Amino acid sequence: MAEPGDTRRGVAVVGGGAGALGRAVVERLLDGGWPVVVPVRRPQDAELPAGAVMIACDLRVTAEIEALAAAVAGIGPWRAVVNASGGYAGGEAHRIDDEEMLDQLELNFLGPWRLARAAARAMIAQASGGRIVNVASRSAVDVAPGQAGYQVAKAALVRLTEVMALELREHGITVNAVMPSIMDTPANRFAMPHAEHARWPHPGEVAAAIEWLLGDDAGVVSGAVVPAFGRA
Predict the structure, then answer these.
(1) 2 within domain boundaries
(2) Averaged over 171-194, what is the pLDDT?
(3) Which of 70, 126, 138, 165 would be a feasible disulfide site paired with 175, CB 3.0-4.6 Å?
């Protein structure tokens, strides 16, 4: 077993690693001996588990992702990427404006796509395979009014996962997604104080599924979109 921080196994990059789910993923990977890099838009505001390497990077800016790719390569080979970044905003399709729709696409689709693209290019150049896991949402398949931009962006991320899985399989790169329902986080409890919180999946439980998809035992799994609904 690799020692903690042993770059011989490759580096895991966790987009959105400062969020509730992202932190849970970072903690599990660090405990499993992975070297973990977290791109952070505002490093001064981020708090990460000890041992994670923070690199300033805005996933909205291609040049900054290219700089991130070079920085990661200086640490070790790209082995795994988790796209846990995103953000929610409600609004009906006929009421939201261009900026609101574009913001949801940027946060929940384009940013993850840019990071997955950088990872795929690096993994192909290394010729050593790799793992990409995207975090979609139950909202990608359960249609409901009032969250048009979010649902459209997460649905696009699901299809991106399926497309990249086919495109990258000859390179030994697997691409999968997990699809959580509402997770049991302090922010979600505050927003929905009367919901049945015990039925929601915990971020640590979703992180465990992600960790499995990054591991050797999941090497034959690609193009999967894994529901992580708990009992919700």
Answers:
(1) no
(2) 91
(3) 165
